[in-house]
Structures are given as C-alpha cells and as structure tokens.
Amino acid sequence: MINFLHAALGFITHATPASTVAHEAKFAADFINIISLVAFILVEGALIYFVIKYRRKKGEPNKQTLYLTHNTKAEIIWTVLPTLILGVIFYFGVASFIKMRNMPKDGEIIQLTARQWLWDIKYPYCVKNEKTKAERCIKLSSKNVNPTEDSIKAGKLQDALQKENTPFMIAKGRKYVMQMTSTDVIHSFAIPSFYVKQDVVPGLTSRLWFEPTQTGEFTITCNEYCGDKHSGMLGKFKVVEPAEFDQWKAEQLAALQKELDQDAAGGPVDESALIAKGKELYGAKGCLACHSLNGSPGAAPTFKGLYGKEEVLTTGKIKVDEAYLAESMLKPAAKVVKGYAPMPNMGVEEADVKPLIAFIKSLK
Amino acid sequence: MSANQAGYTTYQGHTVRDGSLWGNPAPLVYSMSRFGMWLFLATEILLFAILFTAYSIAYYRDAAAFHASAKELSVAFGTANTVILLFSSFTVAWGIEAVKHGNNRLMLVMLGITIACGVVFLINKKFEYGHKMHEVELAKEAIAPELYQVLKAENKCADTFDKHHGEDIMVEKCKVVPFNVSNIGSTDKSKPAFASMFFFLYFVMTGIHGLHIIIGLGLLIWVMRKGLKNEFHPGWYTPVEVGGLYWHLVDLIWIYLFPLLYLVA
Amino acid sequence: MASVATTADHAHHDHHENFLSKKGLMSWLTSVDHKRIGLLYLYTGLVAFLVGGAFALLLRTELMFPGKTFIDEKTYNVFFTLHGTIMIFVFIVPGIVASFGNIFMPIMIGARDVAFPVLNRFSYQVYVAGILVVLFGLVNPLGGGPADTGWTFYTPYSMKTNTSVITLTFGAFLMGFSSILTGLNFVVTIHKMRAPGMTWTRMPLFVWAIYSTSLIQVLATPVIGITLLLLIAEKFFGIGFFDPALGGDPVLFQHFFWFYSHPVVYIMILPAMGVVSEILPVFSRKPIFGYKAIAWSSLAIAGVSFIVWAHHLFVSTLSSSAAVLFSFLTYLVAIPTAIKVFNWITTLYGGQIDLKTPMLYALAFVFLFAIGGLTGLPLAAPAVDVSYHDTYFVVAHFHYTIQGGTIISLMAALYYWMPKISGRMYNERFGKMSFWFVFIGFNLTFIPQFLMGTQGMPRRYYDYEPMYANYHMISTIGAYLLGTGYFTAILNILISSFKGKPCGSNPWNANTLEWKIASPMPEHNFHEIPTITEWPYEYGRDGEASKYSATKGAH
C-alpha cells in the first residue's frame, strides 16, 4: 500500500536507488518527469479550461467566434522554449548515461552467463590444486521462480520461491563489473534498484557496472522476452557489509579447496554425498524445469526409472547407461529422444557429470 | 462504356484506346502512370538497398572469407548474364522509341528480343544453381553420421520429412553450411565458416532478383499481347514505356549485384 | 468559373442512387469504387480490433492475480504475440489511412476516385490474403502452434522456437505489401488529381496527413518486407545471418526491424492527427490555428521519423556515441509534435465548442496523446531508458500514443463520418456514454502501468511479485470498462447506420467537400468537378459557417 501511495505521486518515484549510479539516474528521471508534469498541467489545464470556458451554452444564442489563424509571436515562443527545454533534458539524459557506460578500472569482474531461464555467475575468486593444476572458482546459479505443480501444491507462488532463490552475495561499497553473455537467446540483465540494465546477447560480451550503497536483497529481472519461463527468470543480489562478504568468500573458497583436493584423490568416497551433490546440481543447473522425479510427464523424459531403460530415440533405440547420460548432458543435441524437442545447452560441466549420474541412478 | 471507362479512337483503320481511363484524359493518365511507376521503382530500390546493407555488414565482418567464397562462383556465367541484361535494356528502349514513331512491328520485335534475353538469363541462372546443388550432393555424402545427427537435431524440419516421406532427404532441406560442412558452428574466423554467410546472401539476393526478372517478364509479355492486338500508337504507348522502366530497374540492380558477388574475389 | 451541368449528366442519375445502392456480395468484392474499398477496410479492421481486444482482455484477466489465473505461461506468450500482431498489422497500420483515407481523401480534393482504382482493389485483396495466412498460422497443423515470439520476432528466439513464426511473418509481409500499394496510389492521387483551384495550401489538413503517411508507407515498408523475408529464409534454410553460432548478428535484426517499425508508428499517428485537425474547427466554429505549421510539421515528422529508430536499442549493446546521437534526433521529432498540440488547443480559444461525440473523442485524443508524448521524453533519455526499457512504463507509453492517439481518433472519425457514409445519425446519448466508459476505462487501465513500470515491473511477464498486485488488479478492472466502452461505441454506429434518423448532407455544417455532396455519397462523388476558390477553414467569419465557395459540386 505504501508503495502504491509512493508511486501515486506521479512519475516522480521509482525503485529506491541502491547504487551510486542509481542516484544520478534517478535525478535525471525525476528532472525529466517533473518537467513533464509541469508541461502536463499547463497543456492539459489549458485544454480543459478552454473547453469549459468556450462551451456553447444550451438555450443561449450562438456567439461570434474569434477568427484567429496564426500568431507569429506565440508560435515562435512555443517553438523556441520547448526546444531549449528539450536540449537541457537531452544533456541530463546522456551525461548520466556516459557515466554508466564507462566501466571502472578497479571493478571486480563477475562473469555472467544467461540461459533459458536462469542466471549463472562466476566470481573472480578461485582456488587451485597444486598437483592437478585444476582450478575452481566460486559459482552461483539462480533458480527459476515460476511456480510448478509441486510448488503450487505446497502453497508456494513466485514470492515464496523468490525468497528461497540463491542470493548472489556482493559487498557494499565495492565496484562490480558484470561481464555477460548468453548461451541461447537474448536476455536482459536488470537490477531495478541499482538502475542498471543491459541486454545479454549470444555471441557477444556485454557489460554493466554498479557500486551498491545499501545492504539488503535486490531483485534481478530478465528484461528481454526469452521464451516459456521468461517471467520466472528472477535472481537476487544480497548486499552485505564488506567484512561479512569477505568471510563468506573465505568460507566458499575453503569448501572449494576441499572439493578439489577430494577430486584429486579420486572423488568423494561417500556415495550419499555424491547423490546429494547430484540433487543439488539437478536444481542448480535447471534440470528440474523439465525432468520430473516422480514419473510425471513434462517437457523432457522423467528421471524416475530412467537408468537402464530402453529409450526410443529419433534414430533408433538405446539402453540408458552412464555413457549415454554423460553424452546427453555434455552434448545435448547428439541424441534426441523421440517425441521431445532437443535439450538446450544447460551449462553442465565435466565435474558435474558424475554426481548427476549418481543422482539419476538413485531414482528407481 | 467499357468496364474501366476507357475511351477509344481510330488509328490507321483500327479502333484503339485513346489513353483516357476512368474518365481521366490521356495526358493525365500518362503522367500518373509514369509517376506511379517511378514511385514503385523507389520502393524496389529501397528493398534491395537493405540487402546491400546486409551484404556490406557481413563483408565488413570478414572480407577474407568473402573473397575466398566468391572464387567458387563462375565469373563467366555472371559476365554472360550481365551482357545479356544490358543488351535487353537497349532493345526495350529501342522498342519504346519505335512505338513512339508508330512502328508497331519494330516494337514487337524489340519486345520479343528483350523477353528472350530475360528467359536466357533465367536459364543461365538455373544452370548456375544446378552446379551449386551438385556440390551440396557431394557435401551430403561427406557428412559423418554423428554430425548429421547434430544437424538434424538442430533443424526443426526433421520430423515432417521423416514422417511424410520416409526417406532421409534431411540435409538438402536443412542446408546449414552447404560448402564448409566441417566448420559448422565455428566462429573461428580463420576457418571460412563465413563462407555460409556469403552463399546465404548469394542465394537470397540473386533469388529475389530472379523473382523480379520473372515479374518483369510477366509485365513485358502482357504488354506484348496488347501490342499484338495493335493497341499502341503514338498517342498511347504508356504501358510499353512503364514496362520498359521496370525492366531497366531490374537490369540496374543486376549491374550492382554482379560486381559485389562475382568480382569481389 | 461557371459551367453548365448538362442534362446528360442527370439523365441516368436517379436522385436516390448512391454508392451503397448496388447490392450483393459480389458487387462489393469486385468494386473498384474507393468508397466501397475504404468501407471494406473499415469493417475488416474493426473486426480485427475486436479480436485483438479480446486477446487483450484475456491477458489482463490472467494478470489480475499473481500466479496462474486460468491459462499457462506458454498460452499467455502466444496471446500477447497475437494481440500485438493483429492489432498492429491487421488493424492499426491500415487503420485510418486505408479506411477513411480511401473514402474521403479523393472527395476532399475534388476527385472522382484514386489514381489507380484497380490497384486499390488489388491492395485490399493482398491485405485479405495476408490475414488468411495469419489465420492459417493460428490453426497450422504442421507447426508447433501459433507463434510465441512477441510481435517483434526478435532473433535468436524466433529461430529457436518451433511455433509457426514463418506463417505469421509471411502474413505480415503480405499486409505490408498492401500498404505500399495503397501509399503509392494516394501519393499519385494527391499530386495529380486535385480539382482546379485546389492548391496545396487549400487542401484540408486531413489530406496533408494522408499525404505524409503515404510517403512513409512507400519508403519504409519495403524494409520490413525484406527483413521478414530474411527471417523466413533463415528459419527455413537454417543458415545464420542473424544466428551468432554461425557468425551472424542477432542485434542486426533489431536494427532492420526498427528501421521500419519506428516510421510505422508515424504511419499510425499522422492520419489520426489529420482527423483531429478536421474535427476541432468544425465543432469550435473557428478556423484551425496555424494551418501552415501543422502541414509542415506533418512532413517534418515523416522525414525525421526515419532517423530515430535506434532509440529502441539503447540497452541492446548499442555504442554510447550512437545512443547520444539517436537521443538527440528523437528529441528533435518532439518539437513539431508539440507545435501541433499547441495549435490544436489554440484552435479552441475563443470558440463556441459543441461537445458532440466526435468532438469528445477529438479532445480526448489531444489529452491522451499529450500524455503519451510527454512520457516519451524520459524514454528518449538513455540514462532513464536504462531503467524503463522493457518495463510496463513502455507498455503504457505506447498504449497512450497508439490507442489514446490513433484508436481514439479512429472513433472520432467513425462518429464524425458515419452520418455521411450512411445518411443516418448515431444515438448521441449512447455515444457520449460509451465515450466516458472508454475514457475512464483507458486511464484506469494504463496509469497503474506507468507506476509499476517505474518500480521495475518487466513487460511480457506472465507472473509477477506481489508488490505489483494492486496495480494489476486496477488495470484489469479498467480494461473491462474500456472493452465495454469500445464494444458499445461500435455497436451504436452499426445499429444507427441502419436505424438512425436521416441526417441530410451536412449535419455538422462543415466546409470540406464531402459535406457538399449527398449522404450517402453518390457513386461518382460529384456531378461536375468543382472549382475551388477558398480555404476550407473559413469558420466564424459571419457568426455562422461561411460557404466554401465551390461553384459546382454537390446538389
């Protein structure tokens, strides 16, 4: 309700600005909107005033009207004045824009990959295993928050799912540069509270930058229509104090180091840990959008009882084994099950294959 | 009054149209027809302008690939076609002059030659395309099965053909990269995957141009039919002139296409 | 100046015969009479309007509550695609030009028909062919269902989706071709077929508007034609001109698409402005203020409309310098538009305003279009557009300009000219009632959309966070009011054209040539072509409308 009242003040209010560039953009927006509001009052006011004042009155005889075809002075004034005002508006509009477009040299570069229908980010904080030279960086993926059959049964709509969405941690007062590309169609990465937005185009790298000025959670929206689950492609930035962020970062790196070392030693011994990891990836990589776990039909074959099954492909039959599963995850278009559209590239990496296979095998 | 309210007069013993139409006098009809055709030519030029823009952008992105791909085209064919079209523009202009001076027979001969040139152009084009199709056949045989599956999966045209025809004519229908199959999906500019871009533009641009040749031929044949009925005379030859104008445009567009596609090697 | 009407002219002419007299479906479908062709466009367009409007109501019903209301997301995506495509290509682009332009432009310049009547009929046939292709695409058993790409068909999504994009775009291509032919016809007509004495500065502003619109139609439409053909070729042959995986550029499609689609919005608005320039003087009994300024700004708007397209691409990886340039050019086009608004309002000053239904709609046009124009100012500023792009702010902006502009003006034209076309007056009370439903419903629908857009609500979203729920609820209620208003407004016109009171040739006491001939209009418009000696806006000289000095003309 308060939001509504806030917004009802006219074009003057927006999302609460939460980044450095947001304040400038908001100023430009407010400036233009106030001028528009004044113009609105003057123009529409004149319109309504004239309509009322010069209305033909019923029952009274017709009056002589004013034969006026032009007035050079007035016409010059109302051509020159708006031109000047538009010039000023133009200046404010582009000045702030140039600032938004100059990437700061001291920004932390976060790689973002957009895909149907979630966001994957990769931080520039990595650990390495000295022996194998393998590297792992902190990675997070958002979840698509469109309600599914299951979530609706559990009484969860978009807002509840968004609350459970993976927060992208960042630190207040630090500059971040998002380096973005897409693996399939055009998306658009936008954070309304930071007043930034940029299309994410396959085949190109686009960038945007921001410096958060407030702590809190700020929604990320996809602002270019990208298909079936476009409206669920939300994410969120969680801005925390630098100290808290550094602590989180250290914890994540430690966990990654442990994983790396474990993998170098032959992978987690614990089968259940592997299956748990697989289940986590099932959500994180977006498999859950199309592959059900309980046998119910969907846009893709269900995982229940999949392992060992005789599957009918468009090119013949095959028995589902580890090799087939691995290939389907890494090269989705290589073999397609009859009656389904080819699977899009879900960004599954080599290291994810083993846990995922373990998870699928566990679903009898 | 006839259906389109045309006026008639006599010329050399025949009853011919006097050029008036829908109650408008002949000079007005003449003036409007020419204006209308020039406007229409403007729209055609804009249409091809976009194609030329698309070409320039693709060329700018990878000039080397364009040079390499253009080598696969036959300059001989292209030159022959250019000469044929230029000549046909000359003959149609001559035909218009002929009818202006009342020489109906000469006009018909010139129109006939123009139409024949147009047909030869199309036949040449068919042979040229045929060559390209043959190379597609060769490429088809060279495709490895796995790659073929990938192609098939990526192209939605798959299922219809499988179901309706039973035989696999997938590759021909789903031409992904006709000439550099091994470079499918490559954005590596050192490999001429951009060759596909050149040939896409080649087929689209010459195809749309060919369509306009056919339209132009249709127009000229219609004019010739009227001419055979002795409808044109020095007081009324607007359709001949307007048809000739269209033919000149089609020729002009080819004059631009030819160097861009054939001589860029 | 004087010339005698011969008895021969009257001999075959029955005083009760008019362009509607010949009955039978075939007489309508084979007619080359510009008035009949214009009416066919009007009927087809209004049906398309109701269909597109029905889709809009379905969308708004789904959006009334968060979460699924009654359809799933894929269906929602198809619905907004069809809503946009049908409204834009089938209804609004032909819109006022092909209907009222066809019917009245030749009469207003004192001609008997357009330059190429057979081409005019062919235009309509190609347009219908386009509609049939689109309809086929809806029920297409071969494809994966109707297209779900949005009316903008952006690549690469339009490549990847297996819905029937090809049929929809080919239908749009055909309709575009029809619009080129109509534009060509009108340009030649206006240049060559004006009656004696009808100089360029004596032409009604509606004709100036049609002229500018036709210029844009002829020059801009080929671009979308070829763009859609490239899209179809790529989708059909699988070669990647716009496909990044094969070295293509998806943003190039956006450039090509908007190079046409920005001028197209001026094709939509210029005729609407022309209608308003006709109605305001008649119902204020005053000449239009600033005739030359309005005429020139129509041409200026047509010209500048070609160089502003990339303001749709500020956020699409356009370079900063290009963004600065296009922002500047976009503000430039605001100037002639603002001048027109000031001129219209000054036309009311010192008048005797009669608030009949056409006048109500014309005034609503000025009011709503001004809002649409003012909300374009933040969008033209790249810094602000970054926040507003692809949000509901944009949706509200273009609905204010296109619907609050063109469609409201079309309603004005409908009420102004249907008495002329049918010879019968509509019901004034119901007309006014429908108007208020439309006006209130319209604002109720779209003002919340501005507000939620500034808060960040993205467009083409099937579902949304609860903070936007109230806005959506109000917007949907408004939409129902709006739909009721339009439906009853059109019903009024339909019924009144058969059952209304006969109204004579000039119920509004207006001066343009169509009011000097009988209602309904005679088949060949004029007995004899009139000679023009005066400007058509000589209202208020003697306290009553002075005669428009045509020595010949109607009876």
Strand % of chain C is: under 5%
Q: Could you give a short account of the major beta sheet of chain C?
A: 2 strands, antiparallel
**What order do the strands of the largest sheet of chain C run in, or round the barrel if closed?**
1-2
Oligomer: heterotrimer
Instruction: Tell me the radius of gyration of chain C.
Output: 23 Å
CATH superfamily of chain C: Cytochrome c oxidase-like, subunit I domain
* Rg from alpha-carbon coordinates of chain B: 24 Å
Extended strand count of chain B: 2
* Shape annotation of chain B: elongated
Distance between the ends of chain B: 60 Å
Architecture of chain C in CATH? Up-down Bundle
The CATH topology label of chain C is Cytochrome C Oxidase, Chain A
- Helix and strand content put the structural class of chain C at mainly alpha
Main sheet attributes: strand count, strand direction, barrel closure of chain B? 2 strands, antiparallel
- At the fourth level of CATH, the homologous superfamily of chain B is Cytochrome c oxidase, subunit III, four-helix bundle
Structural class of chain B: mainly alpha
Number of domains of chain C: 1
Walk me through what this model shows.
The complex is a heterotrimer of chains A (364), B (265) and C (555). Chain A has 364 residues and is of the alpha+beta class. Chain A has helices spanning 2-8, 20-53, 72-101, 149-153, 158-163, 242-264, 271-284, 322-330, 350-361; strands spanning 108-115, 118-128, 135-141, 167-171, 176-182, 187-191, 196-200, 206-210, 216-222, 235-240, 310-313, 316-319. Chain A has three domains: 2-57 and 69-101, Orthogonal Bundle (Helix Hairpins); 108-248, Cupredoxins -  blue copper proteins (Immunoglobulin-like), CATH 2.60.40.420; 268-361, Cytochrome Bc1 Complex, Chain D, domain 2, CATH 1.10.760.10. The longest helix of chain A is centred in the N-terminal third of the chain and has 34 residues, at 20-53. The radius of gyration of chain A is 28 Å and the shape is elongated. Chain B is mainly alpha-helical and 265 residues long. The longest helix of chain B has 39 residues, at 104-142. By secondary structure, chain C is an all-alpha fold. In chain C, helix 3 (34-62) runs parallel beside helix 6 and helix 10 (250-284) packs across helix 16. The chains are: A alpha+beta (364), B mainly alpha (265), C mainly alpha (555). Chains A and C meet through helix 1, helix 2, helix 3, helix 5 and strand 7 of A and helix 4, helix 10, helix 11, helix 12 and helix 13 of C.
